[in-house]
Amino acid sequence: MSQFPDEAHLSSWAGICPGNNESAGVKKNSKIRKGDKFLKATLTEVAWAASRSKDSAYSAMYNNIAKRRGRKRALVALGHRILIDVYRTMKFQVPYKDVGAEVVYQRKTKNREQAMIRSLERSGYVVTKVATA
């Protein structure tokens, strides 16, 4: 894995890196780059299989993205995530550990909650978080 300094270089070479076509905070339509077509096809097939697995982090990620952006974009995003995980597993020689779908959903809920609190504070409200049972 010494050929690529980091996972961003690998995903760029593979042509499965996310686009960056944004103007005034609006993400515009963009296509993935040209890259290794065989690797892209393989990653898409792997992503499709991973999205169908039960209670995995990959399936939760796929479902979250597919709701907002569509199935095919979610497959490309999931293929990108898988490529990054493979790179890190091979480079650092550590086994891959799936955190599970529940962790992904909890992280999403926590991020949404923090965004709402920030929005209220920007509007001038004082927010105190109360722990529930």
From TrEMBL:
Transmembrane segments: none annotated. InterPro entries: Transpos_IS110 (IPR047650), Transposase_20 (IPR003346). It comes from the Archaea. Residues 1-61 form the Transposase IS116/IS110/IS902 C-terminal domain. Pfam families: Transposase_20. This is Transposase. The lineage of its organism: Archaea, Methanobacteriati, Methanobacteriota, Stenosarchaea group, Methanomicrobia.
